[in-house]
Amino acid sequence: MSFNTFGKLFRFTTWGESHGVAIGCVVDGCPPGIPLNEADIQLWLDQRRPGASKLTSQRKEPDTVEILSGVFEGKTTGHPISLMIKNEDARPGDYDEIRGKFRPGHADFTYHAKYGIYDYRGGGRASARETACRVAAGAIARKILGAKVKIRAALVQIGPMTIDRKNFDWDQVAKNILFCPDKEAVRPWREALVKIRKEGDSYGGVVEVEATGVSAGLGAPHYAKLDQDIASAMMSIHAAKGVEIGAGFEASSLKGSENADEIRIGNDGPRFLSNNAGGTLGGISTGQPLTARVAFKPTSSILIPQKTIDSSGKETEIITKGRHDPCIAIRAVPVVEAMMACTLADHLLLHRAQCG
Question: The whole model's pTM is what?
Answer without folding.
Answer: 0.96
